[in-house]
Amino acid sequence: MPDKILNLSQPVALFIALLSGALITLSFAPFTLWPIALISLAAFSLLLKEQSLKTILWRCFAFGVGFYGAGIHWIYVSIHNFGGASPLFAGFLVFIFACFMAAIFILPFYIFGRWFNHHSLGLIIALPACWLLGEWMRTWLLTGFPWLFLGYAHLNTPLAGWAPVTGVMGMSFIVILTATVFAEWIWKIKAEPAKKISLLIASTCCAAFWIAGMTLKNITWAEADPTPIKIGMVQPNVDQSTKLSFNQDTTITALNQLRDLSTDLWTNDWVIWPEAAIPTSLTYQDALPFLEEMNTTAAEHDTALFTGVIYEDRDKKKYYNSIAGLGQGYGFYHKRRLVPFGEYVPLEEQLRGLIEFFNLPTSFIHLGPQDQHGLIAKGVRITPAICYEIVYPDLIARAAKETQVLLSVNNLGWFLDSIQSKQFMQMAQMRALETGRYLVYSTNNGPSAIIDNHGKILSRSNSFQAQTFTGVIYAVKDWTPFMMYGSGPLVIFATLLLLCISLPQLLKRDPLPEEAQ
């Protein structure tokens, strides 16, 4: 088996790497065929075994192109349908983005290829450690794009028990470890028993992780308060083109729809409108007459109303993508993680005007302050997240320390009926599981949902229907281990693994002769 793998021609190996990366998409929502990822990752691992650094980097790049090309192909919808790019050019831009993400993906694998590829423990220790460092790096490098983490596919497997302890990245480590152990067994299938001792130990550890996950699933880390909080949600399903138009008639129609849909919801404790429910043609200040009317109505019913809205700081001449509290809801929240090209344009001077995609009317948003303190509704503190922010594990975990409920407001109409909304909800569910918090998940086009503190969907709306629905949540005050420590221990753990397996080699180096010293 080793000879057959080592003798693969580079074109064939690159194709297998590309295909392996693309197939991992099937492990995530809406497909949830999680075993496919283990098989793909095992094949990918074998392609890296005992290869040169250059070969490893090229194969990792091919894997990354397949991984991101298939996993986030839905950005084509935004570029073509709303950005005005032709199908061919939109496809080309998706390919360029996949290549860019693949170039970032390969960075930690330089470490593997440079120092650990020929190590006896390289595949089963160094490769999972490098993968873990790569996922962590993608949460902050260039503001971060923490999408397609392996752990998300295991929201409903035994590994879900690890989410409140290690977060999604800890689950990813176990997934890649399982795959590399499987790959190592294939590599050493005919090896002498004495050469399989380390592999047997790794297999035992791997099995222990999965068994421990089943045990951890039975632990409730954060107890919920027994007092129910009744939630009413409005899903206006306003067409994205309409939301982006600066037309007075459509703006008035949208406001009237919000008023009408909310009529039967005022008996709830909270009423939630989605991201940018107030059309982008109106800032908070412009919409004050309407918002004051809604504030009065909410106050009269002893209800907290939260709505997405563009907030204009006229002194600083800045615009924020925000959530405003009305009635018994208090506070403002300004978005802290912005979507490139959707809310701001990198290299703005060079790109503005090239195609309509770089001139979207929402791409003027500024970054909100980092030290915000969330929202309050009738004494309950809320961690708000506007769209993209809910995919950042540590951002949500840190904020949730001071709050009892998670609130995510979204506008996913940019991607129509693609797999994006399914992937996005899966990630939102993981945030609820990591923090042990109930999550109110509100969208413009659906599905919207009430998610419990175990990451399970209690109720949800239909996609692309204007509708309302209600549910019940509970406040949670306790902290999960992941909330206390975040991803920091994982990064230290991965770094120590690499140091530990490289230390014997460093100690064995012959000292320099006296003349050289």
TrEMBL record:
Residue spans crossing the bilayer: 12-44, 56-76, 88-112, 121-141, 161-185, 197-216, 482-503
UniProt-listed HAMAP family: Lnt
Family, as annotated: Belongs to the CN hydrolase family. Apolipoprotein N-acyltransferase subfamily.
Descriptive protein name: Apolipoprotein N-acyltransferase
Membrane topology: Multi-pass membrane protein
InterPro entries according to UniProt: Apolipo_AcylTrfase, C-N_Hydrolase, C-N_Hydrolase_sf, LNT_N
Native organism taxonomy: Bacteria, Pseudomonadati, Pseudomonadota, Gammaproteobacteria, Cellvibrionales
Enzyme Commission no: 2.3.1.269
Domain called CN hydrolase: residue spans: 229-479
Domain of life from the UniProt record: Bacteria
Physiological role: Catalyzes the phospholipid dependent N-acylation of the N-terminal cysteine of apolipoprotein, the last step in lipoprotein maturation.
Assigned keywords, A-Z: Acyltransferase, Cell membrane, Membrane, Transferase, Transmembrane, Transmembrane helix
Pathways involved: Protein modification; lipoprotein biosynthesis (N-acyl transfer)
Enzyme class: transferase
GO molecular function, one term: acyltransferase activity
SUPFAM superfamilies attached to this UniProt entry: Carbon-nitrogen hydrolase
Pfam families listed in its UniProt record: CN_hydrolase, LNT_N
Subcellular location(s) per record: Cell membrane
